[in-house]
Amino acid sequence: MKLWKKAVAAVTAGVLCVGSVGVTGLQGVLESVGTVLTASAEGGVTVRADTKPVPVSTGTITVRAGAGTAQLTYNVYADDTIVITNCEKDAAGDLVIPEEIDGKPVTGIGDSAFSNCTSLTEITMSDRVMSIGVSAFFSCTSLEKIAIPDNVTSIGYETFANCTSLKEITVPDSITDIGRNAFAKTLWLTEKQKENPLVTVNGILIDGTTCTDSVTIPSDVTSIGDDAFYGCTSLTEITIPDSVTSIGHNAFSSCTNLTEITIPDSVISIGDLSFDGCTSLTEITIPDSVTSIGYWAFDSCENLKNVYISDLESWCKIEFMDNPLSSGANLYVNGKLTTEITIPDSVTSIGKSAFSGCTSLTKIMIPDSVTKIGRYAFSGCSNLEEITIPDSVTDIGSSAFGGTPWLKARQSENALVVVNGILIDGTTCADNIAILENVTSIGDGAFYFCTSLKEITIPNSVTSIGDSAFYGCTSLTEITISNSVTRIGSHAFDDCTSLMEITIPDSVTSIGDSAFNLCTSLTEITIPDSVLSIGGFAFYDTPWLVEKQKESPLVVVNGILIDGKTCTGSVVIPDSVTSIGMGAFQSCTNLTEITIPDGVTSIENWTFSNCTDLEKIVIPKSVTDIALSAFYNDNRLNIYGYRNSFAEEFAKEQNIPFVALDNSNTPSVDTTSMGDLDGDGVISIDDAYQALLAYSSISAGGTPNLTEAQKKFADVDKDGEITINDAFYILRYYAEHSAGNPVSWEELLGA
Prior knowledge:
alpha/beta, 5 domains, 7-stranded mixed β-sheet
């Protein structure tokens, strides 16, 4: 009798005894089998170590909880650390999180791990814990006491929120980052608010929502946390000390009665929505130290009319996601209302939205040092009539001067507004237009939603068509592109629904993402051999693409595979293909297998996303880059590739089963995938044990305590179910290899 058959017989006996010994009794059976097999073993099957903190397996452990027990679920990482991911919701009493499991230290508490464990009263963690995730203890309504270990440096968003009985919290000095609402609705926070309406932890001001009237923040505060004063409608004035370096997201959002705030020169960043809805705020001073202002930082500040700064150079360098001037404010420089500005010679670029919405500005002089003007830089400057732009400026962003009298005056002179050879605006054009020979580029958004434009001729002087240049030109039926254009930008002709044909000249080398997306009348496209780069979805939803799909489900242009969404079954991409476009096979639900040829170097975002039936992809050694979203929602996928390749590394990191195509003397399946449920790099009795536990749970009407990746690894016979056969195959695989017979999975499953 073969060794593996002896092993299977022993396991069968164990399974038959489940009713009397319980599922846990299988471990002993399997260990006995292991003793038999080990006698002739020449060693386990191993793979190269992966030092990255990537989850490789999960497990469960039963711990004491009050007078009873509770089951904890955990992730094991390749660096032999463990993160607790879940606790049974009916756990009650005091619970001690183990310091280690199977000799591996517990170093983290995952997102929502103990959330809604409403009967736990105390949780103890060891000093080995270094991270506590978002909402980790959310709504543990009976929790009364917790000590955060000294090695923890950050507390996530809503970590202890709604722990309504939590009155004792020990926060170590190591904590340098506290997420918003981390302690919201706790007794601990309520008591802190009674002691002082400004609640600080390790220099972080985490709560000031009970403040009233005028407030001065103490000098030991170094940062104002996210949501710190959110909705504090009684706050009228606040002074921030020069110890503070950052103002967090939503920090003063909806403080509707805040009329005055002093921001010191120490502040570097102002977060997203930080002053959103401060409807009583009429003026603000932005110090020179600020380098970034987040999204919608001053949104809905409808009465903010005066912004004070002291240095134009510093102001031009701010990374604006939102500008306090955007509500239509006046700009004061060194206390003087600014109507005319001369940008300092030290400035080389004027950033995005730098002066957007500045109503006081009437004149601006830009020096020769400036080469770039960012998008929306002067947009909405409703009184800006005079602008001096030097010849040095070679890059002007979309709508840089939108809504200014200066632009309107230029439009009245000529519907085509040109600056230094850049056509920056043609939105007032109608019917048929011929661009003049002095134009060298068509700027980003130049004709954006110009719905009256019907025909346009681009001269030989133009070398590039900018991003969104003709976006939404729904009446455009004809365009002539000269043989000088080398680039067609992203979304350049997106939603040009009347455009029926286009000839791309030999000079063009690149076509951007979604360049002709939704051109629903575009039936004829001439693409020359010169085009070496075509962005994702470049011709999406065009009749031209539909016809190409009818000719062949693999639409290839100049070696670029731009579409394969109509493919079915097994597909081999021809060797002539050198690159695959972004989203080329997205939502191709009938695709089951695909082989990528040698020479392709990257797999882009969304390329195979939502290919729900895709089971096998062969990736060559030439691929050195795979986007994280490339195989999004491809739950049945197995990656076939070569050992020590980028494909193998990617499969490991993403917990996708990996099948090795090389080295016939070793198992063809990488041991971190098929059959290796515990992710330890060895296919062993423990893996068979986990498969049996899963089968037993399913047989009893429950669900297997496995990750989606582990379910894939467990179903070695690929019948879509985890059964006792899978456990047998895993054990047989182990037995054969231990006996010196390195059988492949294909051979084993076909036996």
